[in-house]
Amino acid sequence: MSNFSLWLVLAGILLIAEITTGTFYLLMVSLGAAVGALMAYLGYGLEIQIAAAAVLAVAGSLLLRNRSINRSKTDKQHDVLDIGNKLQVTSWDANGRASVQYRGATWAAESIDNTPVTGLHQIVDVQGNILKVKSVSTHA
Question: Could you tell me the CA-to-CA distances from 19 to 24, 25, 71 in Å, in that order?
Answer without folding.
Answer: 9, 11, 22
